[in-house]
Amino acid sequence: MADLIEEAVAPLKKRIGELEAQMAKPVDVAALVERSVATAVASLPAPKDGRDGLDATPVIIGDVVAEVLRQIPIPANGADGRDGADGIDGAKGADGLGLAGAMIDRNGALLITLTNGEVKNLGPVVGRDGLDGKDGLSLEGFEFEYLPESHEIALRATAAGRVKELRYPAGGIRPAGYWREGTKAKAGEAWVHDGSTFYAKKDTTAKPESKSDDWIIGARRGRDGETTIKTVNIGPAPGVKLGV
Q1: How far is it, in rounded angstroms, from Cα 51 to Cα 19?
Q2: Where along the chain do its domains lie?
Q3: Beta strand 174-178 with 109-114: parallel, antiparallel or unpaired?
Q4: Which helix (H) or strand (E) holds 4?
Q5: Contacts by residues 62-65 (CB-CB < 8 Å, ≥ 24 positions apart)
Q6: 174 Cβ partners below 8 Å, 6+ apart?
Q7: Distance (Å, whole) CA 162 – CA 141
Q8: How far apart are CA 126 and CA 111, in angstroms?
Q9: CATH number of the 174-219 domain
Q10: According to the lineage, what is the superkingdom (predicted)?
Q11: Which helix (H) or strand (E) holds 70?
Q12: Residues 176-214: pLDDT tens digits?
């Protein structure tokens, strides 16, 4: 079998030698190998029936072909090809745009003129004049007044015939009377309850007492007085001695 293969590839080796002498011309080596192998196989004589031989290791065609390919030398690179001809010139491009002029219109917008005559509005760059200010007011009158019903100070200012009033708490402590269930006490008021005087620390409807967080005691209720009886002995007046 080995002799048959060697005989089959002999023309292939010869052809490879011829190819190596013509490396300047590209050759399709794979197609050439395929044609050479096909020609060699076709030239083999038809085998006759022989005697049964000893069992042998099967020959794998792929391995044989791989071995043949390994024996083929790697061809050298071919010569570089010549440069191609220059291409034709492209079409002329359009002219570029430039700035031909600029101005600010009456509304404060910046206008620019391009070299092709087109005008672009870039928006306002100058602010408009501010509005006229209003006439000022001169102070004609100024007074304070205490408002006992609300325990507030009223501040009134008069200007140009108009009166502006501001109110704010008068502060301090002011008497409010006797506390009763449902009373709404305001901060700073003094209320009497169960014989004691309490000051409201904030607006509250809570009952006045010393343990409350809304109240502070100002004067605690006094204790009841004691009754004292003194016995006086009244007898006859002592005599008066006269000098003789």
Answers
A1: 42
A2: 2-44+61-70, 139-171, 174-219
A3: unpaired
A4: helix 2-20
A5: 64/5, 65/37
A6: 151, 188, 189, 190
A7: 10
A8: 12
A9: 2.10.10.90
A10: Bacteria
A11: helix 61-70
A12: 889 999 999 988 889 999 999 999 989 999 999 989 999
Cβ atoms of residues 183 and 156 within 8 Å: no
Instruction: Note the Cα 23 to chain centre separation in Å.
Output: 69
Nearest to 195 by CA among 170, 229, 220, 228: 220
Rounded Cα gap, residues 187 and 200, in angstroms: 5
The residue type of 197 is T
Between CA 38 and CA 181 the distance in angstroms is 126
Using the Cα atoms of residue 15, residue 20, residue 24 and residue 27 in order, give the sign of their dihedral.
positive
Q: Which pLDDT value is given to residue 24?
A: 47
pTM exceeding 0.70: no
Neighbour tally for 34: CB within 10 Å: 11
DSSP per-residue letters across 6-59? HHHHHHHHHHHHHHHTTTTS---HHHHHHHHHHHHHHTSPPPPP-------PPP
